[in-house]
DNA sequence: CCAAAAGTGTTTGTCCTACACCCATGT
DNA sequence: ACATGGGTGTAGGACAAACACTTTTGG
């Protein structure tokens, strides 16, 4: 292959911050490294970008390879290019964040070769490279974006109660919301639709289940509607 | 140098969308290419990232080299990684956008070797590579961000009239604003301060000049204040 | 004195906030 | 029957929108 310039090239990787939500906390998926540097330490899933795949493809491929997760919400976050961020050589990384619904299978979601696990964002181990900074950036982006884009639904099961929805916002925004006002606001926007189903196996009155109506959201958005919590 | 992996590496560049504002329009700085491909065509300023500089450094260096602009507002936008975006070989580019105050010297800001010029965003020539898509992304980011971060001031001179400020928002947001409500809102936030100076050389009543008070903005922000237009 | 833009107040409606009680269900 | 969370209404205040005239200055 001919090169366009004579200089040494930075290597290019992708790293992904995968967020999940359980009844308590916002969680992040980490991988235990099996190679130096930081051998045995925890890091974000990620890896090198191949010359024949897009950045999004690379992120999706690494996610499947390292965590088994596929078909989840994924969005590019920021590209980190500090010169010494990898002690071996110059590596620029395109960071992504992903949102996934944990449902039941929280706490430990390990896969094939490597050890993968969920950690609460509020209580993380020390991370390799500059991955803590990447995670902080992802967390901040999530906090900012969740308020004016309906991405929070990606963290919930397809059918959810209004309390689950409220809890999701409370965890991400890190403040309490008024139950009555929250319900009024959500139901006033017509994008969360009631279903006929109700919660199961709870030791009290069962809550109605709702779903996010993407079709209505898209229609309203085209008409100038702006989602906001 | 030892390489971490055997695969071919994508090349890495930065490209910068420089916005300026005059009395009429939002403008973008373009460079006329002197090499194939797209020889003679117009493109965003940019170039290869060196192995010993950060991405921000690369963007600033290219800006100085190709347009002469320095010490201006610069922010990373998005990283574009389509496989065929450069016909020669795989090139991933980290896009930035920059904001600059045109003051008097609009229209033609050419430099040393290359030909650089301002074009109104609403009437652009055909651009090389995927630069139109990059520009569109930058434009959309600017539209979104200008409403809740005080970055619009970067497009104005240090002392400006409230009409200039309003005009800046009208051009970027592409809608008219009510003069009285706009003034009330801006002056109610205490971050735009009156100066003792007034406009000069106008054939009618001269307007008072104002300045953005970053110190007050930072203080209020720390107290939970959220800028919004 | 005329043209051109600067500068200013009030009313109306909407939306956000704060707040407390009854309801349905499982044990 | 009781414990647990589900579900609802209202009043007050703050803010956004709509709207027109007077003032200042230069030519």
UniProtKB/TrEMBL annotation, chains A, B:
Gene Ontology molecular functions: hydrolase activity; nucleotidyltransferase activity
Organism superkingdom: Bacteria
One Pfam family this sequence matches: NUDIX
Keyword Transmembrane attributed: no
CDD domains in UniProt: NUDIX_NadM_like
UniProtKB keywords: Hydrolase, Nucleotidyltransferase, Transferase
Protein name: Bifunctional NMN adenylyltransferase/Nudix hydrolase
Upper taxonomic lineage: Bacteria, Pseudomonadati, Planctomycetota, Planctomycetia, Pirellulales
């Amino acid at each position: 292959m001919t090169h366009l310039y004579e200089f040494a090239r930075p290597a290019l990787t992708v790293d992904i911050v995968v967020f999940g939500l359980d009844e308590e906390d916002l969680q992040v998926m980490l991988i235990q490294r099996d190679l130096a540097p930081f051998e045995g330490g925890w890091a974000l899933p990620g890896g090198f970008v191949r010359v024949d795949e897009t950045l999004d493809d690379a992120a999706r491929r690494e996610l499947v390879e390292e965590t088994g997760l596929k078909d989840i919400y994924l969005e590019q976050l920021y590209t980190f290019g500090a010169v010494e961020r990898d002690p071996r050589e110059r590596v620029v990384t395109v960071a992504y964040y992903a949102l996934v619904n944990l449902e039941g299978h929280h706490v430990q979601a390990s896969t094939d070769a490597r050890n993968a696990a969920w950690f609460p964002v509020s209580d993380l181990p020390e991370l390799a490279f500059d991955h803590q900074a990447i995670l902080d950036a992802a967390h901040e982006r999530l906090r900012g974006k969740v308020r004016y884009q309906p991405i929070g639904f990606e963290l919930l099961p397809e059918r959810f109660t209004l309390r689950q929805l409220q809890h999701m916002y409370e965890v991400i925004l890190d403040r309490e919301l008024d139950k009555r006002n929250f319900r009024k606001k959500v139901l006033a926007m017509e994008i969360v639709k009631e279903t006929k189903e109700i919660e199961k196996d709870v030791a009290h009155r069962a809550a109605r289940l709702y779903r996010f109506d993407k079709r209505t959201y898209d229609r309203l958005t085209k008409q100038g509607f702006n989602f906001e919590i």
